[in-house]
């Protein structure tokens, strides 16, 4: 497992939830002991760099910056240079992008929706996997229910930390997904409802 799990007080990740998220929400989740997350695919490099620098000065715990690989991600190099502790990729794992991230000090999480995707991400050097089921909101890349996908990915025994995403909304859901082999539960809509 990666050092990510050791840095969290609670096995909770706030999903990047696009424009529904704010710096304040992601910061609050990190301060509470979870993994706050921000989507930066569409942010300008200047804005993204400023946000990361602000977060680095105001937070002691980890937070994640997400990029959707189906779109051009101009801010990624700036975010890496600014020192974002965790980068997550969804909808793709271009080899050059992965290599760029691996040369930085950032941990790399790759969202997967299939066993083949999980194997490819592990081979590329992901530090952790985000197993996304069809129950997830936003940019869903999976065609498999979360519990079935998680069972298959756990059986791969990659040694990587596994984050489960999709349809998790309360304490019971988190407990159930951890019992199925996930190390961290990602919640998105639940945090939107909390705003």
Task: Give a structural overview.
It is a single chain. The chain has helices at residues 3-7, 23-31, 45-58, 76-82, 95-102, 115-124, 146-156, 171-179, 189-194, and strands at residues 12-14, 36-39, 63-68, 86-90, 107-112, 128-132, 161-165, 184-187. With 195 residues, the chain is α/β, with parallel strands linked by helices. The termini are far apart. It is globular, with a radius of gyration of 15 Å. Strands 1-8-7-6-5-4-3-2 form an 8-stranded parallel sheet. α3 (45-58) packs parallel to α4. The protein contains 9 helices and 8 strands.
Features:
eight-stranded parallel β-sheet, 8 strands, 9 helices, alpha/beta, 195 residues
Q: Radius of gyration, rounded? A: 15 Å
Q: Structural class, judged by helices and strands? A: alpha/beta
What's the helix count?
Answer: 9
Strands ordered across the widest β-sheet: 1-8-7-6-5-4-3-2
Give the H and E element order: HEHEHEHEHEHEHEHEH
What percentage of residues falls in helices of 4 or more residues?
40-55%
The average pLDDT value, as a whole number, equals 89
What's the β-strand tally? 8
- Terminal CA distance: 32 Å
Largest sheet: 8 strands, parallel
Low-confidence stretches: none
Work out the strand percent.
15-25%
- Form type: globular
């Amino acid at each position: 497992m990666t050092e990510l799990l050791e840095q969290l007080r609670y096995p909770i990740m706030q999903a990047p939830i696009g424009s529904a998220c704010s710096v304040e929400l992601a910061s609050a989740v990190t301060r509470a002991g979870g993994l706050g997350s921000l989507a930066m695919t569409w942010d300008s490099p200047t804005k993204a760099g400023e946000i990361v620098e602000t977060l680095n000065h105001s937070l002691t715990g980890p937070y994640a910056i997400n990029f959707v690989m189906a779109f051009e991600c101009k801010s990624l190099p700036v975010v890496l240079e600014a020192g974002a502790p965790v980068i997550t990729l969804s909808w793709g794992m271009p080899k050059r992008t992965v290599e760029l991230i691996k040369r930085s000090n950032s941990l790399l999480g790759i969202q997967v929706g299939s066993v083949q995707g999980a194997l490819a991400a592990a081979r590329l050097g992901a530090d952790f996997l985000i197993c996304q089921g069809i129950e997830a909101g936003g940019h869903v890349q999976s065609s498999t229910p979360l519990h079935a996908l998680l069972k298959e990915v756990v059986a791969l025994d990659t040694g990587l930390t596994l984050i489960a995403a999709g349809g998790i909304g309360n304490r019971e859901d988190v407990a159930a997904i951890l019992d199925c082999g996930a190390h961290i539960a990602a919640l998105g809509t639940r945090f939107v409802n909390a705003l």
